[in-house]
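Late entry, written up from scratch paper. The run itself happened at the end of the previous shift, but nothing got recorded in the book at the time, so transcribing now.
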Amino acid sequence: MDVAWMIPHGNRRTLQNLEELPLHSEEARKKFLTWGNTRILQPPMVLDPAYLDELGHWQDIDEFLYNPKWRVLLFLQAPASLEVTIEFLCSLRFHNDGEEVKSTTEVTSTTKVTFTLMGRLLSLTVADLGWLIGLYTLDETRSLAFANLPDQLDPEFDVKKFWQAHGYGRFHSGASIARNWVRPSWRILHHALTHSYFGRPHDSDVVFDSDMLFFWSLEARVPVNLATFVARFLFAQSTSNHQFVLCGPMVTLLARGLCMTIPNVLPEAASMFRPSTRYLTQIAYNKEDKEARPRKQHRIPMTLRELSQAMFAFQDSVDSRLRSMETLLLTQQWQVEEILEYTREQGTKKAEHGAGPKQGKRQG
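Output as recorded:
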């Protein structure tokens, strides 16, 4: 089931004025005019341990995420700024030995990254990026162990065998369904990643070969280079044809690492999407879960008492589903109201700010 339409959008505004952004290069300015002025922030999905615990999935996820560095990404908390995010993406460039990187696979921990934030031109390596966003310490990024961390699947990895062990049916990249992960917790994790670091919010129920790096590294307990993982995500965000960008909070996290304060950020509630328990329940559900267990033999009701019990059970099932739909609709209504209220407040502030100088001029 595609539930991308349930994800709220933090701010549907786009930037139209080139002068709003302190872009240094002509290349970055051109990219804004041909690409950046149509981009809209979409809040990435982040997980809340309290909600997961309420559903009974937290223990499984907690044990699976043995590497605390993944938690930095999956439980990220940071607001977003449209202006700073678009400035960053329009100015972002990756180079290997002076040659510009053309694809995500070319990005490594030694790749040089250049960009501007609030007009400040910066140049650093992917390893430095991992340090600034809090994934690694500076000493870790300078170590031989870090340099040897894999950033792709093991050549011996067999994706079909892995799926056979952890999923239903046969695996076909781009065709297999995420709902067919055997463990409900993996369905939730996969969904969260497609709505964030995989960058596929409108194709969230499909599994690709590339998705397996996350599950393989944690299942096999093989640490991978998360600095490279994030850098590739940012590269993909800066070159994507999708209108919505998901990296707003990550850009803020990078700015914090650089000791920069970003003004006029969106509230965290509009910058990130924390799914409700109802939403997570839908993601985690698969009818195969029941069919995989030994089926209970059901006898056709014969007596009036048995028929009555069967009717009441059916009615309870219908009522339960209707209540679930009602709760989901109320949750969506609340999210929309929160966003509209914030938009109205911003409009009022802008109107008051614009009216101030005009009134002073008339009085003079």
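The chain has two domains: 4-280, 305-363.
(Scratch paper discarded after transcription.)
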